[in-house]
Amino acid sequence: MFGAFLRYIVLGLGFLLAATVVVPTLKPGDLVAGLGVGSVAIGFAFKDILQNWLAGMLLLFRQPFEVGDQIIAQGYEGTVERIETRATVIKTYDGRQVLIPNSQVYTNNVLVNTAFDQRRSQYDIGIGYGDDIEEAKRVILNAVQEVDGVLSDPKPEVIVSSLGDFAVVLRPRWWTDSKRTDVVHTLSKVMTSAKMALDDAGIDMPYETQVHLFHDQTEDVDGVRGKQREGWPVGDTQSASKTKRKKTRKTSA
Questions:
Q1: Does residue 189 share a domain with residue 147?
Q2: Residue 128, domain member (yes or no)
Q3: pLDDT digits 0-9 by tens, 13-33
Q4: Are 101 and 52 in contact, with CB atoms under 8 Å apart?
Q5: Which pairs count as long-range contacts for 13-16, CB under 8 Å and 24+ apart, including other chains?
């Protein structure tokens, strides 16, 4: 890119020199003044192109990422194939090509997944409230350590993430190589290994549970706090409910 920039400068100077030779009455100062006015007009006409070109130069000089790095930019994730004068070319993981203008790459946030050799992953697993938390943590940790692709340094760990509505959420965390293929395939192996280990240990992985309570709106105590029944069988208030319904029917008739 820098070589092409110098080439255009040399061509421009050569054009000015040739013009003064062909037309002796033409003054170099007039040409430079005319070139200055023309450059302003060209700058407005090709503002975006020049902005992307300059951003591409800065990307190549500062090198926040390199060709072959896996990045996330402007909502697109993939491997950097090359940095052109106008755009940064990314190949997505599903085999498509994305061209992102250099100005957007340079002025916005870019996540470089392969900036370091190692990358941490995690996954939440819920166990029943009646199960032993420490035992479950031990079972999951042993399952994670046995997975091929999980690094031993830093060591994997299992922490309690939250106390959910229907489960105690445990979060195993482990490190792998930073490449996307290593992260995804290792995650799949960890989930499979943890599920099988918890089943063998007899530790419950409960489903989400919801309870819906309904009440009879024809009762005399409907809307009265402390007396209104919510979903429980009708008891002593059954006769009162029938009496109220009969009165309502007579009034309607």
A1: yes
A2: yes
A3: 787 778 777 777 766 666 666
A4: yes
A5: none
Q: Which residues contact 176 (CB under 8 A, 6 or more apart)?
A: 118, 119, 121, 149, 150, 151, 182, 183, 186
Tens-place pLDDT, residues 168-177: 999 999 999 9
Average per-residue pLDDT in the chain?
83
Is residue 86 a contact partner of residue 52, using CB atoms and an 8 Å limit? yes
Residues 138 and 189 in one domain: yes
**Is the pTM above the cut of 0.70?**
no
Nearest to 197 by CA among 141, 126, 114, 235: 141
Domain count, the chain: 4
CA distance 85 to 60: 10
Whether 51 is covered by a domain: the verdict is: no
Element (H, E) at 162: strand 157-163
- Same domain for 189 and 123, yes or no, is yes
- Residue 181: give its domain's CATH number: 3.30.70.100
- 59 backbone dihedrals φ, ψ, rounded to 5°: -65, -40
Q: Is 228 contained in some domain?
A: yes
Could you tell me the residue range of the domain that residue 98 belongs to? Answer: 58-112
Helix axes 47-62, 28-45, angle to 10 degrees: 90
- Distance CA(60)–CA(193), nearest Å, equals 43
pLDDT band at 38 (very low <50, low <70, confident <90, very high): low
**Are 123 and 189 within one domain?**
yes
